[in-house]
Design a protein that fits this description.
Helix content: 55-70%
Shape: elongated
Strand content: 5-15%
Largest sheet: 8 strands, mixed
CATH superfamily of the largest domain: Vaccinia Virus protein VP39
Number of strands: 12
Number of domains: 5
CATH class of the largest domain: Alpha Beta
Strand order of the largest sheet: 7-6-5-8-9-11-10-12
Length: 992
């Protein structure tokens, strides 16, 4: 051990931090480039290819220059400085270049090939210079340290390789879960840049006076060892990245396709490389037959990779167990992420540990043969060249043509072939040739067995990361399963319901009846897709051109095409296999495929609109759930800003949004992004967990009669339970002012490309099975609606719907009045004053028939019951119906009950009479006698605030309202909105 080993330890720590910052760059570049390329898969492929390509160029350059440079460690420090400066400048450069590409370059190109070439070229140029610099860091630092500490070069090389890889694995996890959520994309890349600059300063202070001239190189002339080892380095890099691409796609269907999942997979892959480097570092300098050892490692790597094919089914079982066992909580989510990392390690670790040993051994052999320290750069360069070919071959050729499993098998075949070749090279040093022959034959046999084993497409389509394996029904059948460039697409049939599935996540389901005649049954997704296709015509009945983002099953576009006056429907779908899978729904979506007005374009939305420069009357955006990596970019303020310029002057945007597996903060960040760019926004409930925002740069004015003028359209709506105009009007929750009042109360920024609040929050919300209740509860918020002068419902019945439970509640309220009159007019007197009877009409009829009687035994229960009845009726009753009833109740000796009953009755009567001063006074009286911890107290405070706003002046409260009390009160959605309106001074919904 060198006496200067503490200094060597510092250099190793420096290189660990260099790896930490390097993987922040790779991770953040993926985020930036998916904004340019339109899909996370494309961005990941490009970043891997260019990152590795740049590394190769940098390594080649370093191998040449190191021969002529003295202080290589100082050169490394200068490179770190340059990387840091470029990191600090990257965000500003990207913003300018992205704007130039979409506004100037892409619109001027008429060819799809040229458009894609330009995007990939621009993306490559953005990250190539930094990648080249990063590629030079390892050769310069490794060669410089070996010159400075010449003892045990193999140990030093492996230690540096381990430190850099380990730092990289930690860097990607820290960035994903800590840095990026806290400071966004600009802050993350700035953090990496600052780290590089600090490292450069430390290195400069440590080695500024060092000088170690390179020793003269002496090459062996009898054996071309350099050439065949560089060839091995290239092919082992190719095989390793075939594995990486295959494992990422395989594990996406186990872990889900979120950004967190991808980065966990990448961290696991790199961690395996680090462990391999760590394990070999103490052994490498003692190797007697390093080529023979390298051959064994290559064979083992191929074996371990091939074994992941039969192992794959068991990974689904383990994830299923974890999903079912873990609680839907913050702690459970942390354990879920830990489980995800463990499963990735189970799949990747054996082979990647072997991969982590190969470069140190190859470099050591070349150094041992006196090829010179420039060999380090050459090995690194050839390995990265192979990696580039592996990435491109896997993603663009093998997977789309031969399928996912073939990617893995080809990688294993390459490693086994390399092992056999190296055994032949080291044949003279092999002591037991029969043993090695047996190992090769056994490996080939394993590869053949693995090649005939099929993946379980039922499990791959199960969405195990959401449901365990509960989605695998005994009577289900996979009708379609193809590996596309961006996702694996399947169509599953369960009885008569067909579901289109992307990477294990159902995107659309349709009931495909085999029987003709009668009313069709519908799946839970069909109301959503049909209404997304119908809503545009409520606001834009003369729409001629419509763009539909996201094909899904095709039902949305089919519904749009049912309108006889539409002239053009462009459906933009990024994955071609979705189109082919949707053909199985053709009986229900035939117009998408047969109507000449329909065109399906395979492209990402941003590129399509920028290239076509077309203007549409309507844009319908129906992407997958935003927890899927890259999809949240279709819910950002930048995306809506761009879409606005492709809409006609009075055009409308219809944006699908779900509330399941989401929370109100994330919903608020989407609404804020939308409202920043559009003047008016309306919201509709289109299914149990699905909503649709309708937005325009002009004021929105719905005409519900338009949709029932065309026979085919009318039939399509009737199939989903929308029979009358009332049914459509009831599905409208509110307009912009009400939405703004509620969502302004959440302290979250608008979802942005560069501060992706939704991307990182949605994955956690999905795991916790959260539900954004604000929109669901908003329909009941009568006080907000009346304060903001939103028109009340003017009808008395809606068609019941299993996809919107509020329809039943609305109808029950309307039916209540008839039931009450019937029971009051019946012979005999029903005396149901106990709370054991659920029917409000039975209880109230009994109360109204006993006005002159003492009800002392039921006084408390009846007080509570009266409060419940009045509150329930207030949600959906018209003033014309409710006001006479409340007068009738007030005349029925209400003083028999507790004083609270009289006050509660009075506050509703006063509100209906528009006596807001009296409402304020009554509310204060109730407030003085109740604590701020009940549903009634929250509703009472809502009356108080609403009354003050209707009066247009702030008045004192009878009791102090602390900040803590107001936070507690915000659990009620209506009260939350009213508090926001009350406290606001500069919003248009403020009445003060």
């Amino acid at each position: 051990m060198s006496v200067r080993s503490p200094q060597l330890a510092i250099f190793i720590a420096i290189f660990m931090l260099s790896g930490f910052s390097g993987l922040i760059y790779e991770s953040i570049w993926s985020h930036y480039l998916k904004l340019l390329l339109g899909h996370a898969s494309y961005a990941q492929v490009l970043v891997l290819a260019i990152f590795m390509g740049g590394m190769a160029i940098g390594s080649f350059a370093a191998s040449r220059w190191s021969k002529h440079l003295g202080n290589l460690i100082l050169c490394y420090g200068i490179i770190e400085l340059l990387v840091g400066i470029s990191g600090i400048a990257f965000h500003s450069i990207f913003v300018v270049v992205q704007q130039w590409a979409f506004e100037s370059v892409i619109p001027s190109l008429g060819s799809e090939f040229l458009i894609h070439t330009s995007k990939w070229t621009v993306g490559s140029l953005l990250i190539l210079p930094q990648s080249i610099l990063l590629g030079a860091t390892f050769p310069f630092l490794a060669a410089g340290i070996i010159r400075k500490f010449p003892e045990s070069p193999g140990n030093t090389l492996a230690g540096l390789y381990f430190a850099n890889s380990f730092g990289a694995a930690i860097g990607i996890l820290c960035n994903s879960f800590i840095i990026l959520p806290a400071v966004g994309l600009p802050g993350s890349i700035l953090t990496a840049g600052i780290i590089n600059i600090i490292l450069a300063i430390i290195v400069y202070r440590m080695v500024r006076y060092d000088h170690f001239p390179p020793a003269p190189e002496s090459r062996e002339t009898n054996v071309p060892i350099e050439k065949y080892l560089l060839f091995v380095a290239a092919l082992t890099g190719l095989a390793s990245f075939l594995y990486e691409i295959a494992w990422i796609r395989m594990l996406t269907m186990v872990l889900g396709g979120s950004t967190h999942s991808f980065e966990i997979m990448l961290a696991a892959f790199i961690l395996g490389l680090a462990i391999g480097g760590f394990w070999i570092r103490k052994r490498i300098d003692k190797m007697q037959r390093p080529v023979h050892t390298l051959a064994i490692i290559q064979v083992l790597m191929g074996i371990f990779a091939a074994l992941t094919i039969p192992l794959y089914d068991n990974i689904f079982e383990l994830m299923s167990f974890g999903v079912k066992a873990l609680n839907s909580s913050d702690q459970g989510h942390t354990l879920y992420l830990s489980l995800s990392l463990i499963l990735c390690l189970v799949v990747m670790l054996p082979a990647t540990i072997c991969a982590g040993m190969t470069l140190p051994i190859i470099s050591y052999i070349l150094l041992d043969k006196k090829v010179g320290d420039s060999a380090i750069g050459k090995v690194y360069a050839w390995n990265t060249v192979g990696a580039i070919f592996g990435v491109l071959l896997a993603s663009q050729v093998i997977m789309p043509v031969l399928g996912l499993k073939s990617v893995l098998l080809m990688g294993a075949a390459v490693d086994l072939a390399l092992g056999g070749y190296l055994f032949w090279v080291a044949r003279e040093s092999i002591l037991n040739r029969k043993l090695h022959h047996g190992l090769m034959f056994a490996s080939i046999a394993l590869l053949l067995v693995a090649s005939v084993q099929s993946f379980d497409t039922q499990k791959m389509s199960s969405g195990v990361f959401r449901y365990g394996l509960n989605a695998v029904h005994s009577d289900s059948e996979i009708l379609f399963h193809e590996d596309g460039k961006t996702s694996t697409v399947a169509v599953r049939r369960v009885n008569s319901v067909y579901a289109l599935i992307n990477n294990g996540k159902p995107d659309a389901g349709i009931y495909m009846s085999d029987e003709g005649g009668g009313k069709d049954e519908v799946s839970g997704d069909e109301p959503t897709m049909v209404l997304l296709g119908a809503l545009p015509y409520i606001y834009k009945p003369d729409a001629k051109s419509i763009a539909n983002i996201g094909m899904g099953s095709g039902l949305t576009a089919h519904t749009i095409l049912l309108h006889p006056e539409v002239q053009r429907v462009d459906t933009v779908e990024i994955e071609e296999q979705v189109y082919h899978g949707a053909k199985l729904f053709a009986d229900k979506v035939e117009l998408v495929f047969s109507d000449p007005r329909s065109k399906v374009i395979f492209e990402d939305a941003k590129t399509f609109f920028a290239a076509s420069q077309a203007t549409y009357d309507v844009i319908v955006s129906e992407p997958p759930n935003p927890w899927v990596s890259g999809v949240a970019g279709l819910f950002t303020t930048e995306f809506y800003r761009d879409m606005k310029q492709y809409l006609a002057k009075d055009g409308v945007l219809v944006q699908w949004m779900h509330v399941y597996e989401l929370n109100d903060e994330l919903l608020a960040t989407v609404y804020k992004a939308l409202s920043e760019n559009f003047q008016d926004v309306h919201i509709y409930r289109v299914s149990a967990g699905d909503f649709a925002f309708v937005a325009s740069t002009e004021s929105l004015s719905p005409d519900y009669s338009r949709l029932f003028k065309f026979g085919d359209f009318k039939k399509q709506l009737e199939n989903i339970g929308v029979v009358t105009e009332n049914d459509l009007q009831f599905r409208k929750i509110s307009g912009r002012k009400t939405l703004e009042a509620v969502f302004d109360s959440y302290p979250v920024p608008a979802n942005s490309d560069f501060f992706p609040v939704l991307d990182y929050g949605a994955s956690k919300a999905r795991f916790k099975r959260e539900r954004a209740v604000s929109l669901i509860k908003l329909r009941e918020s009568r006080l907000i609606r009346e304060v903001l002068a939103e028109a009340p419902y003017q009808f008395e019945t809606v068609t019941p719907s299993i996809y919107d439970s509020d329809t039943d509640e609305f109808n029950r309220v309307q039916a209540f009045y008839g039931q009450l009159e019937y029971k009051l007019s019946s012979e005999g007197r029903a005396r149901f004053l106990s709370t054991g009877v659920d029917s409000y009409s039975s209880w109230l009829s009994a109360f109204l028939q006993s006005c002159g009687e003492d009800i002392e035994p039921y006084q408390d229960q009846s007080t509570d019951k009266l409060i419940d009845v009045v509150s329930w009726l207030f949600r959906y009753s018209s003033k014309e119906k409710l006001e006479p009833l409340l007068e009738r109740i007030a005349a029925c000796n209400v003083d028999r009950l507790r004083p609270l009953a009289r006050d509660w009755l009075d506050i509703h009567r006063q509100w209906l009479a528009s006596d807001y001063e009296a409402v304020y006074m009554t509310s204060n009286r109730i407030m003085s006698n109740t604590e701020f911890d009940t549903k009634l107290s929250r509703k009472n405070l809502a009356f108080n605030l609403a009354a003050q706003m209707m009066l247009g002046e702030r008045k004192p409260f009878v009791r102090e309202l602390t900040a803590e009390t107001l936070d507690l009160m915000r659990a009620d959605v209506e009260l939350r909105g009213l508090i926001q309106m009350y406290q606001s001074k500069d919003r248009e919904y403020s009445r003060f």
